[in-house]
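Run log, item B.
One chain of 76 residues. Sequence copied directly from the ordering sheet:
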Amino acid sequence: MFFENKIFFNWVDQCRAAGIDSLIIPGIMPILGYERLKKMITFTKTLVPDFIFEEMEKFKDDESQVRNYGVEFGVK
């Protein structure tokens, strides 16, 4: 799981260096809830850029706005 593309690209480079030549396609899982995101990153140890939480802090209690933000972020 990643929120910055460079993390994925570096991981793909490491896979290639290890001899893995399979097609690697990242999936997209949008942010669907503020608390859900916090729980998920706790057990996955995923790094989330500070700006994501800073932006979501404004509307963290509005599930609809959080989902809209998550979808928009995923599209970008």
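Observations after the first pass:
- The helical segments are 5-17, 34-44, 50-56, 63-75.
- The mean pLDDT is 90.
Flagged for discussion on Thursday.
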